[in-house]
Amino acid sequence: MATGTGSLAVSEWLSSLHLEQYADTFQAQGRALLSQCRDLTAWDLEQLGVGPPGHQRRILASLQRAFSEGSGDDAPEVRPVPRPRSKQRRPAGHSEVGGASQDRPPPPIPPRVTLNRPPVRFPPMPMFALLHVYRLESFNQSVYLPVSSLPPNAPSVDPSLPPSPVIKMGWLDKNPPQGSMIYQRRWVKLDADYLRYFDNEKEVYSKRIISTSSIASVSNIGEQKFEVVTHSRTFVFRAESDLERNGWVSVLQDAVGDPRCRRESKGSLLSLSATNHEMQGYLELRGLRSKLYVVLCNDKVFLYKNQEDYKLGIGITFIDMNVGNVKDTDRRSFDLTTPYRIFSFMAETDQLKEQWVEAMRESIAEALSNYEVATKIWSEESNGFCADCGATKPEWAAINLCVVFCKRCAGQHRGLGPSISKVRSLKMDKKVWTEELIQLFMLLGNARANLFWAANVPPSEALLPSSCTEDRRRFITAKYREGKYRRYHQLFGNQQELDNALCINVQSNDVLETLSLVFCGADVNCYTGNPEYPTPIALAQSFNQKLQVEFLSQNRNTGECVRRFVTVHYMAPPSITHNGFLFKTASVGRPITERKAKEEFSRRWCTLNDGHFNYYESDKNSTPNGVLKMKEIVCLAVNPPEKHGYNHTFEIYSDSERLYLFGADNLETVKEWVKSITKSFIPASAEDLLNRDFERIGKLRYKDGLNLQSPKLGWFALVGSTLHACFEDSEGEEAIHLRKLQELFSGWVWGHCGLCVWCFRTLYIEGERKLDFLSWSAAIQQAAGSSGDTLSQQQLTEADIPVIVDRCIHYITQCGLTSEGIYRKSGVNSKIAALLEMFRRDARSVRLKEGEHQVDDVSNVLKRFFRDVEGGIFTSQASQQWLSTAAVTDESAKIAQYQFLLGSLPRVNKATLQALVNHLYCVQRFADHNQMNLHNLAIVFGPSLFQTDGKDYNAGRVVEELIEHYVAIFNVNEQQLQKQLDEITALGSGDFICTVYLEEKKQSAEQSVKIPATMTAAELTFEILDRRKISLREKDYWCCFEVNEKEETERPLHYQEKVLPVLQSLGTDSYLVVKKHFSMEAMLVYLASKVDVSKHGMMKFREERSLLGLGISGFHDRYFILTSTSLRLYKEVRVRFWELGPKTNRPEKEWPVKCLKVYQGVKKKLRPPTCWGLTVVYESERQEKPEKQQWYLCCDTQTEMREWFATFMSIQHDGNVWPAESMKARASRAVPLDVRLGNVSLIPLRGSENEMRNSVAAFAADPLAVSPIILRTDEMRRPHRDSS
To answer: Where does the Arf-GAP domain start and stop, copy by copy (predicted)?
Structure first.
């Protein structure tokens, strides 16, 4: 070695190698000269901090050349010259992919997973770790693998690292698990973590995946075969030759035989086992009968046959999520789509499905994420927290507002629109993030940006990471759309000065001032006054202010948005303060139904300030026992006196499902606290509610009949029996009279909803939480019921008539006008008392039905109600004036006095009296049938209405005169009188009068028909045909149809079905029509050809939307099985329906056939896929809890729909769809029952030829066949007299 070379300085030598960064390290270790580096090895270089293998090779090669043995002392000085970097080439002689070299052992295997864990990517190695370089014949690159255990402070798994490369792959024959001698050809791949085999080399997803950490041993077993032994199973493979077999065995043994790698693998994964698996559990995969155990880990989804295989490390395959897409398909199903295959999964519940879909979508986002931009932006400390709610590690940003925020706030920013907030991802939108934009976010940061955006945020309105979606929407809208909390610029309001200040400021690097100017109204595109640089952007470019240019470029189109919200200064609302002592019980998570004694209350010092309600142990404590924010309150209720140990108490319900009970010694204290608290959480738009003496006040979500898509927020106050509401979409408040509700439903269904119907308007109410909804529901039900014994305290109709009076009058008018002794006969006392109690409990729910309730029982209920009502119908103050009027002799003066007294009655009493007298007027018109004339009715009702003992004759006289002079006293005009008389005449027989149409609904085709209780659909049909004189033909199938115009459906009534119950259930949009049933003949032919009564097949199915507008939209394919007892719905076809066992395939839904009504047709607004649809209505038979459902079915062809409908009718009517001898039934309707006159048979004139032939045959068989034929007509119904 030349002397000059050994004395060369290390710094100069390293500079010639372009590695001058290590000079200080070498000198610090006492190696200042090149000669002192002669004995360096790779390990020494590692200790010196030379980590990259390329740098190590360059240094060692240079030392070898400088100190080679062949160099003489006189050799000229040769300065080391660095060699150019080159890619690793495949050595000569290696032609087979993954082939093993005889003179070089295969590379050691990287760290593997434990027995029950999917693979984890390699963590980045520290600079001082010892590295070796191994070439892989299948790749033109180097892979660096550790050979020593990791240091204690090794970094965690980096998800951005690439997956493990393939070590060896090729074709092998695999022995099946059953031990058959027939081998299967498989394409086998081995990498650092798994041994996998496929059907062919083009397959992406394997048939089996075996963790290398679960392999116990690998050994030769002769005949080119080797076996891979795991903890639970042995896999046998066969190669083409012994050489290839030996290569596989060698590589596999190295992969499983390195104990150091095992320790590293095990140790490095123990701490990650809890965090790697984002989700795991059983899912059903379409195409397989059994469920699979699915593990979602980082950016991969692993499939296992069961949980045991998962623990043993033997799986089926894994799916890379960076090429996946998740699609929500059906109720419990979702698809994971890749470019190579679609995996259709089905979870056990809807909730689990949502969790899987959300987890997989997050996994896809993570797989596509790039942490480079996020890491740089998070380097600014304030950017590590959401600018709106403070959540950690925000991954989204508004590139024009210069703020970084979390995922939950990002959804609300998107709702603002791109003209206000341009939302971009820090991880996925890499192309957007230019170097200037990143520098802009690092310069400003959330802290500096919020000096402008959030300069005036009241503490009560600030967001938290746990804030709900509604609070986030309200806050972010106020912050960025309205500019509610921003710091106003001193030039605010002066457009010219703002533009001038912007043009001046863009020449500097103060971007925060530019942001303040722009979002206070400065025009980004204003004219600068310099033709060379006409805009602020051009001006900033001329001064090389790149960050200013970037900010202005992102806000080119925000001018209109800014001008919309810069008109009004934000003024913080006045803070409400109050303090004092209250008595408090422990908060609970359920309604308080029991009485709380005084001993259960604790005295607490309470303060209300700045939207926070604090309670302390005493007034001397500074640390509160608890805090309740006003924005968390959803309801406040004032309890009635003496409900608890303290006479005056109130309850507070929070959105965290907690109930707080407070009490005080006096009423005034409670009133002051209630007033202060409600003012703090009730918005200004609902302040009118505070002026009422409410029992309960709070917010509820609601939907009305015009909008069922999304609930709106409303504020409600309950005052007595009136519910006052301030709706979001209306000005002022509306009053809902709860006692006048037509229907009230309350239940915990579809997110806790209550249903109120009043004035033909439907309102759906939904509580914020279950706890407050239950309290609202109970309070509304109590307020909607009868609260006392006076008429005004009863449940009322829209006409202010008590429901009990209205229902009884209506029932008696329909069923008892001709009943002899009506109102005079006594009913059964036990039934009268029970019915009266039902009316008093909830009159709205009582339905009087013929057959279930007797007329005399109902009439006595009405009389007893008037006898027991507090104050009577004439009121206790005026009853004597009514009685004295009966003594007036002048009829005109008497009527005038009655009219005066009638006008002075309360509204409910007046309406009730008029309805009752109207009814009694109808009853006395049928005195010939019911024997109840004016005098008899007066005797019965006088004592009941005046609540006397029956000895006062004037009571009866008053009632009699009110009925007699009904028209004059109650001012009934001539038209009303005539209409009423017509109704009375029509109702005289007690039958129901209805309008039936012939063939179509039009005025010329309508017929008014009396409907007795026993009339069938066939009798009604013949009645209409007889009136129109329509004769029947051989193939005519006339039928009565129930038509619903609103639903666009119709249903043919069965010929034996009673018409009256159908009429009573018809709505205002329904009617009856008699027309031909053109499909009946085809239905009868189909039923005659059927062997089995059941039917099965695919139909398109859609559920009716729920009360809140929820439910699955659109039609979906479902498999139906209709048996003699039930209709079953299956999600898909598994096996033939006759192979279904009781446990093998449980139906998704099942309904009893007897409870189904099937209508033909589906309304068009549902957009049915075909025009051949059925609407099915299910009504349960349970009286205690009736249930009604409706759904829609669509068939592919008209024939298919006809067959389904025929099967339904056949099952529901035991195969008797149409009478076998319909013409005889037709004839029996037309001909009287007495078909003989004396001993002579009669032949009908009407009927078909067959009917007449049958009648003639009967006549011929008669013993008096020689008698002449007698044609019976209406005149012949009179008694026959002999002419002699």
So the answer is: 362-485
261-296 tens-digit pLDDT: 443 343 333 233 333 457 889 998 887 878 899 998
Strands annotated E in 1195-1244: 1236-1237, 1240-1241
Q: Answer with the residue of higher pLDDT: 1071 or 364.
A: 1071
**Would you put residue 654 in left (φ > 0), alpha (ψ -120 to 50) or beta?**
beta
Q: Is the dihedral of CA 27, 30, 36, 40 positive or negative?
A: negative
Please classify residue 1229 by burial: count the beta carbons closer than 10 Å to its beta carbon, then call 0-12 exposed, 13-18 middle and 19+ buried.
middle
Q: How confident is the model over 1215-1229, as pLDDT tens digits?
A: 888 886 544 444 444
Helix/strand/coil (H/E/C) assignment for every residue in 7-63: CCEHHHHHHHCCCHHHHHHHHHCCCCEHHHHCCCCHHHHHHCCCCCHHHHHHHHHHH
Arithmetic mean of pLDDT, 898-911: 91
Residue 844: left if φ>0, alpha if ψ -120 to 50, beta else—which one? alpha
- Kindly report the length of the chain: 1284
- Contact between 1198 and 1174 under an 8 Å Cβ cutoff? The reply is no
Cα torsion 661, 666, 668, 673 to 10°: value is -20
pTM of the entire predicted model: 0.44
Work out whether the CA dihedral 263, 268, 270, 273 comes out positive or negative.
negative
768, 655 in Cβ contact below 8 A? Answer: yes
Residue type, 692: R
Q: What is the DSSP string of 167-183?
A: EEEEEEEE--TT--S--
Identity of the amino acid at 377: I
Quickly list DSSP for 378-433: HTSGGGGB-TTT--BS--EEETTTTEEE-HHHHHHHHHH-TTT--EEETTT-GGG-
- Three-class DSSP category at 270: helix
Q: What's the 3-state SS for 292-311?
A: EEEEEECCEEEEECCHHHHH
Per-residue pLDDT, averaged over 988-1011, amounts to 78
Q: How many C-beta atoms lie closer than 10 Å to residue 1008's C-beta?
A: 9
Dihedral in degrees, nearest 10, Cα atoms 793, 795, 800, 805 = -110
- Rounded to the nearest 5 percent, the helix, strand and coil shares of the chain are 35, 20, 40
Nearest to 768 by CA among 756, 776, 760: 776
Helices 1222-1230 + 1017-1027 axis angle, to 10: 60
- φ, ψ dihedrals at 1038, nearest 5°: -80, 140
Nearest alpha-carbon partner for 55 in 85, 81, 25, 77: 85
Looking at beta carbons, which pairs linking 238-246 to residues 24 or more positions away fall under 8 Å?
Answer: 238/172, 238/173, 238/174, 238/175, 238/183, 239/172, 239/173, 240/171, 244/170, 245/220, 246/100, 246/220
- Long-range CB contacts (within 8 A, 24+) of 1206-1209: 1206/1083, 1206/1084, 1206/1086, 1206/1087, 1207/1087, 1207/1090, 1207/1093, 1207/1094, 1207/1095, 1207/1122, 1208/1122, 1208/1153, 1208/1156, 1208/1158, 1209/1054, 1209/1083, 1209/1158
Q: For residue 641, what are its two tokens?
A: 């006196």
Q: Dihedral of CA 1111/1113/1119/1125: which sign?
A: positive
Strands laid side by side in the 1188-1194 sheet:
1006-1011, 992-998, 1070-1076, 1038-1044, 1049-1052, 1156-1160, 1173-1179, 1188-1194, 1095-1103, 1116-1122, 1126-1130, 1149-1152
User: What is the DSSP pairing of strand 992-998 with strand 1070-1076?
Assistant: parallel
Region for 116 from its dihedrals, namely left if φ exceeds 0, alpha if ψ lies in -120 to 50, beta otherwise: alpha
Residues near 696 by Cβ (< 8 Å), separated by ≥ 6?
635, 636, 637, 638, 716, 717, 718, 775, 776, 779
SS3 assignment, position 326? strand
- The CA distance from 287 to 290, in Å, is 9
Query: What value does the CA radius of gyration of the chain take, rounded to a whole number of Å?
Result: 45
First to last CA, the chain: 169
- Alpha carbons 727 and 1037: distance in angstroms, whole number: 54
Structure token digits, residue 1045: 């115009």
